[in-house]
């Protein structure tokens, strides 16, 4: 098909040309005397992204899922109890992992379209008089439903009753796109990946671990090997890794961190909020459709999940085959009910207008009654008033 593919899934996101060029390197000796320059640039450069002075960034050759497993197996003992709200496919998968690793899991079932309920977390933690809950797991941004949860409010709830549980946060589709504050929010492990806000190909598990979590890892007895924090921290101290790292991705990460620094992290957050507002205007005001997120307080600035009155899978297929536009699918409970527009990473207004126009044409082809050009016009109007 002529023209380039428009990639608007909520990850992998578009990789900037600068990052692609930075990754175009010959292989090298990852035990050489100069290699630590690259490793330290990446690890130190991640600290401002996590907004931490005391946390320890770690990089695993994996997706964010590997960092999920690392958090659980490094910091907990076999059979430990964890608390997690399930309100989308990715919070579901993290809960499923906990069960498969044989931890005791208390699940707060939550409607898909809402975020993690602070009140229900507080009630469960307050009832845990013996402090059997050892970790609270929260998805900051539920990629499947376009919902963002209030992580600092969860921490305040924990602190209000002095509950000692660790706080693990999945920021896979939030980090470097939506504000995240490791130290201020008292997060013990943040889990993320390379392929979203960090604007890299998939393949790096990006995580940050608090001093409290590292101390817990010294005494936890769950079995781990590949994802052992201790091995990684020990090797990183001298600028190396305990096994062969993903070399081109490290070069790409160094460049993406430089790009974020040049734009300014707070400006990156503002750009994502601004672009997301245009996408939501297209959905709500232009197309007169609904989002999966049921209230503005849950709206995500990295992905909008659009409810449609036809088969969402048909819209996605039409967009891909006819217009060379990749949209995110509905998953599990919302399969066929929606499609998702990812608006994160290396992105501007004109790029997002292409996705809105393509989605609009695909929906009309599938029988959705919308006014041609209405979504594009609504997004433009939103941005013009906020430029």
pLDDT < 50 stretches: none
User: What string gives the helices and strands in order?
Assistant: EHHEHEHEHEEEHEEEHHHHEEHEEHH
Intertermini distance: 35 Å
Taking Cα atoms only, what radius of gyration do you get, to the nearest Å? 21 Å
Give a brief rundown of this model.
With 387 residues, this protein is of the alpha/beta class.
Describe the model:
Helix content is 42%, strand content 17%. The chain is an alpha/beta fold and 387 residues long. The strands form 3 sheets. A 7-stranded mixed β-sheet has the order 2-10-9-8-5-3-4, with helices on both faces. It has a 5-stranded mixed β-sheet with strand order 1-13-14-12-11, with helices on both faces.
Which features characterize this protein?
single chain, 387 residues, alpha/beta, 5-stranded mixed β-sheet, 13 helices
Could you outline the blueprint of secondary structure elements for this entry?
Blueprint: E1 6-8, H1 17-23, H2 35-50, E2 56-61, H3 64-75, E3 81-86, H4 89-100, E4 104-109, H5 118-127, E5 133-139, E6 141-142, E7 147-148, H6 151-160, E8 166-170, E9 189-193, E10 204-209, H7 211-219, H8 229-236, H9 247-263, H10 265-286, E11 290-291, E12 303-307, H11 312-323, E13 325-329, E14 338-342, H12 349-365, H13 374-384
Helix pairs in contact: 1-9, 2-9, 5-6, 9-10, 10-13, 11-12, 12-13
């Amino acid at each position: 098909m002529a023209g380039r593919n428009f990639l608007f899934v909520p990850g992998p996101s578009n990789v900037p040309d600068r990052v692609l060029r930075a990754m175009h390197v010959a292989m090298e000796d990852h035990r050489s005397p100069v290699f630590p320059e690259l490793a330290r640039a990446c690890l130190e450069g991640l600290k401002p992204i996590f907004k931490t002075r005391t946390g320890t960034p770690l990089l695993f050759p994996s997706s964010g899922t590997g960092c999920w497993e690392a958090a659980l197996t490094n910091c907990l003992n076999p059979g430990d109890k964890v608390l997690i709200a399930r309100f989308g496919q990715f919070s579901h998968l993290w809960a499923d992992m906990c069960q498969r690793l044989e931890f005791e899991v208390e699940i707060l079932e939550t409607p898909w379209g809402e975020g993690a309920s602070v009140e229900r977390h507080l009630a469960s933690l307050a009832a845990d008089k013996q402090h059997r809950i050892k970790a609270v797991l929260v998805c900051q941004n539920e990629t499947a439903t376009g919902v963002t949860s209030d992580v600092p409010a969860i921490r305040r709830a924990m602190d209000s009753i002095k509950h000692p549980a660790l706080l693990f946060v999945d920021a896979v589709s939030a980090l470097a796109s939506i504000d995240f504050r490791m130290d201020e929010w008292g997060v013990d492990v943040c889990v993320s990946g390379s392929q979203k806000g960090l604007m890299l190909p998939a393949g790096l598990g990006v995580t940050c671990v608090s001093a409290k979590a590292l101390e817990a890892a010294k005494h936890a007895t769950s079995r781990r090997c590949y994802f052992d924090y201790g091995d990684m921290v020990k090797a990183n101290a001298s600028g190396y890794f305990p096994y062969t790292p993903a070399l081109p991705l490290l070069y790409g990460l160094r460049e993406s961190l430089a790009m974020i620094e040049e734009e300014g992290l707070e400006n990156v957050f503002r750009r994502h909020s601004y672009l997301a507002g245009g996408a939501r205007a297209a959905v709500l005001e232009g197309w007169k459709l609904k989002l999966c997120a049921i209230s503005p307080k849950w709206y995500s600035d990295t992905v909008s999940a659009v409810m449609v009155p036809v088969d969402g899978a048909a819209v996605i297929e039409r967009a891909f085959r006819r217009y060379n536009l990749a949209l995110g699918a509905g998953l599990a409970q919302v399969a066929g009910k929606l499609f998702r527009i990812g608006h994160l990473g290396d992105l501007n207004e004109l790029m997002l207008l292409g996705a809105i126009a393509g989605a609009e044409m695909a929906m009309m082809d599938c029988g959705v009654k919308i006014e041609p050009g209405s979504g594009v016009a609504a997004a433009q109007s939103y941005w013009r008033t906020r430029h």
